[in-house]
User: What shape does this take?
Amino acid sequence: MNPTSNALYIADHYNHRIMSYSKGVNNGTLVFGGLGSGIANTQLSFPIGLLFDAYSNNLIIANAGGCNIVRYTFGATNWQRIVGAINGTCGSTSTLLNSPHDMAFDPMGNLYVADRNNHRIQFFNADQLNGTTIAGITSSVDNNATTLNAPSSVKLDGQLNLYVADRHNHRIQKFLRY
Assistant: This one.
């Protein structure tokens, strides 16, 4: 939600686009994408997580099918990669993601990514492409306190504790400040 304009932004997952809806208006407006699924920086591939960055007036998109987190500047014709592959390559190394579903920024600009198909949370220092696994074990599925099974959402509280929606384990995991 854009607090200034009250526009609601929605990641239209299966239509590979971002839409906006104004208060009191039934029809949406195409913001970006809608050119079919693809890995070009003019396309999206199954976008799912979405943040409105009021400071920069950008949208941050978890581009699940593109295996990356991207930044879209309003009015631009393409996105810019924040982390993950620029060419849609999925993987489990420290620089790759596999179906990222959500992300959160802390006040220092560090990025936390729910890397769903790698069953982990990746932490990226501000403006860095190399991440560190801070929750879950890469490509390992279980239901004990240190593992995750398809994490789908991440949120930080005021003390920077991390909350993870651990989808297939049907639980919310809390991890103390990293």
Q: What stands out?
A: The chain is about 0% helix and 45% strand.
